[in-house]
Each structure stands twice: as C-alpha cells, then as structure tokens.
Amino acid sequence: xxxxxxxxxxxxxxxxxxxFWALLIAVxxxxxxxxxxxxxxGSMLPNLWVGDYVFVSKYSYGxxxxxxxxxxxxxxxRYAVLSEPQRGDIAVFRLPRDEGVDYIxxxxxxxxxxxxxxxxxxxxxxxxxxxDRIEDFVIGDAxxxxxSIARYRETLDNAANHEILKEAPLSQTDxxxxxxxxxxxxxxxxxxxxxxxxxxxxNIIGYIPEENLIGKAEIIFFSMDTGTALWRFWEWGExxxxxxxxxxxxxx
Length: 252
Hints:
The chain is mainly beta and 252 residues long. It has helices spanning 8-33, 236-239, and strands at residues 34-38, 52-57, 90-95, 98-109, 114-118, 121-124, 127-128, 130-140, 146-155, 161-165, 175-180, 185-189, 208-209, 213-223, 247-248. The strands form three sheets. Strands 1, 2, 3, 4, 12, 13, 14 and 15 form an eight-stranded antiparallel β-sheet that branches. The chain has a four-stranded antiparallel β-sheet with strand order 7-6-5-11, with no helix packed on it.
C-alpha cells in the first residue's frame, strides 16, 4: 500500500485562496451594501443608545467618494442613486469641517427648506411639526442612579414620526434664527435635542453636503452596555441588550 506525503503547498494555496475570497466579499459588502457603525454618544437617545452597533445601507443614497476606503478623489457628486434622502431618515455622514470623522443624525431639513426651532418645536417652511408628550425616558448611569427626561413623539410633514428627548421647554439652542438649507445640502439634528451638536451649530457642523452622506441607518444588529469590552464574550450574558438586537430604525 502506497502512502503519499501530504502536499503542503497545495493546502497552503487553498487556504490563501479561501482567505482572499472571504476578504474580497467582506470588502464588497462593506463598500457597496452595508457598513457597520458603533454609537459612541447619547446624542440620538432615545432611539440609539451608547453601545449600539448599526448597519448603514450605503446603496440607499448612491455612492460618493466617501463610500470608499480612504475617500479617494476619483470623482465628485453621487452616482447610482436609488432614492433621495427623506425627511426623518437617520443618516451617517462625514463631517464637512473634518472629513475623517463620521457623524450620525436625523435629517430634518431638505434642500431649499427653511428651518426654525422655537420652544423646542421644529418649524419647517413656517409650519410647526407636531409634538406630542409621551411617557418620560428613564436613563441610568454607571453608579446605578436614574433620572427621567421628558420624551415627545415628533411627527414631520411627510408623516414620518419618531421619539425625541427635551430636557427643558426652552434651551440655548432655540432661537428665532431661520436656517435656510442650500441646494445640495441637508439640515440634521440629534434626537436628544438639548444634548446634540448638529446643524444648529454652523461653526461646527452646519449644513451637510449631499456628497458627504454615507448612507441610511437601517437596523441595530448588536448592543452592549458600555462598561463591558466587546472581546469579553463570557460577560455577554448580562451585558448584551438582547431586546435591541435586530431592532429596526424605520419610522413608526
């Protein structure tokens, strides 16, 4: 009976080929379909919590240079657009003043809109958006203390609705100023209205060029308490927020 020696070079080649195709599929998936993002702050509470991981559909708004790794200057504008951004979408974008930083906010103003925020209520083209008080949002801290924040359901003029937080009826971000959204740009706000740096701060964020949009946040695919490191999988039992996994981010 003849015994053949294993062909290690063939086995190594198969492993390298498998890894190559796996990497290629992952790159294509991330570049053209869905990209994962981690939520590091509470500016989108109560809808996105610190420790949430979301999938962002990159094909929704088409592709710009920011759709690709390192944002190469191969072209300008957006291509292969399936749908225009809608009022109420949760969008990920590159910060206009620092194109290496990703932000996530809700689109409130479309190109050509006029936006005002008075006493916590959004006015779009002189029309107030409906704001209904609902039950308080209860949030805890690392020390076990809890506090309640006023929660509202905001309904936009296209019937999209979502929850927002408002800690005070009036705040320093409310003013008679009218924000006139330029063509090709969008006005974004965080759902945690008194604790969000967004388009209201023209010297920090301002209006978002459509080219800077990366995609639309679609779903929460994982969520974990911030006190637990992701690699400590043996602590997932208590740290993972199981009820938030695969939660949709579509408007109600």
